[in-house]
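quick one if you have a minute, typing this from the bus. theres a chain ive been looking at and ive put its sequence and its fold in C-alpha cell form underneath. please have a look and point out which stretches look like helix strand or loop to you. anything you notice is useful, everything is just below.

***
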Amino acid sequence: MKNIFLSIFILSVLSTAAKDVVVTDYGAVPDGKTLNTAALQKAIDACAESGGGRVTVPAGTFLTGTVQLWDNIELYLAHNATLLGSTNNPADYRDSALVLVKGVKNVAISGTGTIDGQGWHQNFNNRGRKVKVSRPYEIFVRDSRFVKITGIRLRNAPMWVIRLKKSEWITIDNIDIYSHSNTNNDGIDIDAKNVVISNSIIDCDDDAIVFKSWTPDFVVENVAISNCRIASNCNAIKFGTWSAVGFRNISIANCVITEAAEDNVRTPWHERMEGITRQPTVISGIALEVVDGGFMDQVTISNISMRGVQTPIFIRLGERDGVGSLKNVIISNITATNESRITSSITGIPGSYVENVTIRDVIFNSKGTGILEHTDKNVPENNKGYPENRMYGASLPAHGFYVRHAKGIQFENFRLLLRNPDARAAIVFDDVKNSSFKNIQADIPTDDQPLFRIIQSQNIRFSDYHSSIPVNTLLSVEGDKTKKIIVDNCDLMGVGQVFEVRDGASKTEMILNGNIVNR
C-alpha cells in the first residue's frame, strides 16, 4: 500500500512539473515568411501552464509579431535562431513590444540567437508622416521582477532596443546590440531599480545607455553598469532627459566609448555644427541631466576611456519642467579625445546650483582651434532648453572645462592637452562657490590669454600647480562679486603674473600662501 501511495505521489508531481518546449512542436515555421505569432505564443502558454520552463527557438528564422512571456519562463534562442519582427505595423503588435515582459516574475531571455526588429522598414518610419505610427521596442520589460537577459544579439530595432519600466531585480549580461536602422534607436533605457548591466556591446544610432525617470513615485536607483563597449551617434552614457522623479545610488565603471560604426539616418554632425571635423561622433560621452524637477544623488562613474566624442562630460541642472537638484557625483579616471569646440561643462541656473561634484584623474586630449572671439562669448542661460551639449552653441569660452552656477566643485589631477592652438582658457569658473582646483596642468592658450579664469566666484582654492612651460597670466580674476581666491603650494617660477584683476574684482581678495615664486 505504501508503494502505491508513493507511485501516485510521484505521478502527481510529474504531471505538474515544469515542461520544456520547442516552438516547432507547436506549429512554428522557420522560413522567415510565415507569421508565427500564434504558434510561438501557444508554445509559451503551454510551458507556463505546466509551471514554467524553457521555450526553445531552434535554428532558423521565425517571423513574428508581439509575443508575451509569463512567470517562470525562459525564452531560449538557440545558435542561428532568429526572431524576426513583422513589418505589418501596427497590426501585428501590441503594448509597443516585440517581446513583452509585463507584470511577471522569474523570466529569462537567453541563448546565442538573434532578435531582429527590421526597424528600417517604411512601416516603422515616422519621418514626413502627419499621423505618427507606434513603433515597438524589441524587448519591453514593465512592472516585472527578477528578469535576466543574457547572451543574445539584438538588431535593427524600430524604436528603443530594450526598455525597462517600473521593474526591478534586472540582470543584463553579455548581450550584443547593433541598431542603426531608424531614429530613436536607443540601446538600453532604464526606468528601473536594482539593475546590473555588464560585459555587453552596444552600438546604436541614439543614446546607448540612458537612465530615464518618469514613473510617478518610482526612483531609479541601485544600478551597476560595468565592462561595456559603448558606441552611439548621440550620447553614450546619459541620465535624462526624462528626469521628473530621481536617480540615486548608481555606479558605472570600466567602459570604453567610441563613435558609432555607421550613421545613416540623420544629417551628419559635421554638417550641422561648426567645428566638428569628423563623422561620426558621439555627442557626449557622459551626460548627466536633471531638467524636469527630479533629483540626482550619489552617482559614481570611473575608469572610462572615450574617443570620437564631441564633448567628454556634460552636466546640466535646468528647468525645462520644474527645478530639481543635482549633487554628490564623483567622476574619476577618465581619458578622452574630443572632436569639437564644445567644451566639457557643469552648469546650473541662477539660484539653483549643481552641488558637490568631484572630478579627478582626467586626461583630455582636445581638438582646440578656439579663437579670440570664443574667449568672450556671452553664454546664454537657456534655462528651459533641451539639455544637450550644443544648447549653448558650437563653442564655450574654455578649451577644457566650463563651470557656471555650481558649488562644491573639486577638480583634481587634470591634464588638459591641445592637439591644435587655442585662445581659450583651460578652465572657466563663473558664479562658482566653495570649490577648488588641485594639480591642474594645461596647455597654454594663444594670444596672451590667461590659463584659467574665475568670474564672480567666491572661496576658490587653487593649489599644487607646476609647469615647465612659461605662463604670462595664471589666473584672470573677474567681477565685483569675486571673493577669497587662494593660490597655495604652487610652483610659480615660470609665471609672469599670478593674477590679472578685471571688471571690479578686488586685489585684496587675492591670497598667496606657501608658493615657490621668482626671486
About this structure: Residues 4-16 have pLDDT under 50 and may be disordered.
